[in-house]
Amino acid sequence: MEASTCKQDVLQKKKNAVLVDGVILNGPITDSKAGEKFVEEACKIIMEKIIQKADDVTEKVCEWRAPETLKKILDLEMRDTGESHQKLLQLCQDVIHYSVKTNHPRFFNQLYAGIDYYSLVARFITEALNPSVYTYEVSPVFLLVEEAVIKKMIEFIGWEEGDGIFNPGGSVSNMYAMNLARYKFCPEIKEKGLSGLPRLVLFTSEECHYSMKKAASFLGIGTENVYFVKTDERGKMIPEELEKQVQRARKEGSAPFLVCATAGTTVLGAFDPLDKIADICEKHDLWLHVDASWGGSALISRKHRRLLHGIQRADSVAWNPHKMLLAGIQCCALLVKDNSGLLKKCYSAKAAYLFQQDKFYDVSYDTGDKSIQCSRRPDAFKFWLMWKALGTTGLEERVNRALALARYLVEEIKKREGFQLLLEPEYANVCFWYIPPSLRKMEDGPEFWQKLRRVAPVVKERMMKKGSMMLGYQPNQGKVNFFRQVVISPQDPTSRDIPTSHLQDDGKDRILSGFFYCYPESWYCGTSVTCWAEVAVSPVSVVALVFF
Ligand SMILES: Cc1ncc(COP(=O)(O)O)c(C=O)c1O
């Protein structure tokens, strides 16, 4: 029913309508029955078009359209009058249809993928309840849930006690940590601001997440005061280089205050040597923050937690259960070893209208003042319900399985002609080049790399336009564009789907088959002369596109 018809109905039914400024005050402002029906029908669409299709490899990962075309299809304009429910349901279907299915078995594009049914239901519940997690009076359950989850995460880090806060993303966690480390270094900054401070310098590796730069600029530290430490060939921070950089900063007369190590780098999935870095931090009295946004989940696995050896020596840790553990975006915690209330001292503003100290309950549960936010989503609840459902062993299996899948992919890449691994991965980031037939016999040299650089973007474009598979590509530290395939989804191939003895039957191999679906017999059988790669290396041969 349209809003105007609804209003007329109300007027007719309510003879004694109380009108103030032309607004009916004693009539329903929405038709709740119609609303409920709308929700019910929309839920059916969500079930059929998203959830039931999440493991269907025959579906497309994406239905690519160029922005201008998509604008026309979507009817984006917002009009003076409301649309009918029927039209709205159609719009919902369109939105789903043209959105990327990050839960599709062939979505390997990002550091998140797949679907976890329990965290999804938790999200439905919190969307419906619409709580804001700042005071116990408005979020009693979610505050206790957050406390329980943080306690458990702290246990896995290996601290005896600590503190923490869920916040919107690893980038924000890193920013929190940087500010907290600076506050510890000079607490008067909270009142006095930056004036009068020495030049503060922080250290992180060349392979760190870009949020470090953003945080430094946002916090007024300045990107030039982020000293990037060299990494080894696997992308790990070199401790000796860190030591040199700290010495350099001291000689310059600046004030080093923080080292940010990365546990699971974004592109290569490398883990910095935390123990050795912690030694340097201890020696120079520097705050050690570990950005374990991506790699933190390995802590749950008895087999793989050694990757984070030494993490218990960190002062703070960023850990995103929304990545490998599939808790649903966003679900990220900043965890702090300090248990003396540093987080609260650093961030609190003591708003009297919200955090009254004379409330009738224990106000230490009003934890919202530890946050830089006011309204805050109950993100810990998704992780909690999922953890309840799967148990720690279920979460552990999820990590072990992702890393086993990555291993499987690595072995396949080694076997297949035309695929070249960048390096043996430590984690679930499988980085490789695809070398098309036309380049396979070429001598290694600048021309080869110049041509290879153009291959990944073309493959990516073709895969997206077909909707066959999504994976990322990038140049990195002097290496030309290579693919990064992140294998974490539980919808990825199982032994049921991959008859390892028939690996040449590529259509059944979900990990790699997006490539094959995209490039039929022509190249993977090694028989074709008309190869897509010719298009990649020679943009003028547009005609070749026609053959695909
Ligand atoms: C190592 C690392 N840190 C931080 C982030 C940022 O996390 P978020 O996307 O939750 O802000 C990422 C994102 O991929 C990351 O890989």
How widely separated are the two ends? 48 Å
CATH superfamily of the largest domain: Type I PLP-dependent aspartate aminotransferase-like (Major domain)
Structural class: alpha/beta
Q: Residue-averaged pLDDT, rounded?
A: 89
Ligand catalogue: pyridoxal-5'-phosphate
Q: Please give the CATH class of the largest domain.
A: Alpha Beta
Specify the CATH architecture of the largest domain: 3-Layer(aba) Sandwich
Might you state the CATH topology name of the largest domain? Answer: Aspartate Aminotransferase, domain 2
Number of distinct beta strands:
14
Shape: globular
Q: What is the overall number of helices? A: 20
Helical content band: 40-55%
Main sheet characteristics: 7 strands, mixed
Using the CA coordinates, give the radius of gyration. Answer: 27 Å
Strand content: 5-15%
Q: If strands are numbered along the chain, what order do they take across the biggest sheet?
A: 4-10-9-8-7-5-6
Query: Number of domains in the coordinates?
Result: 3
Low-confidence stretches: 494-508, 517-548
Family: Belongs to the group II decarboxylase family.
Organism: Meleagris gallopavo (Wild turkey)
Subunit structure: Homodimer.
Cofactor: pyridoxal 5'-phosphate
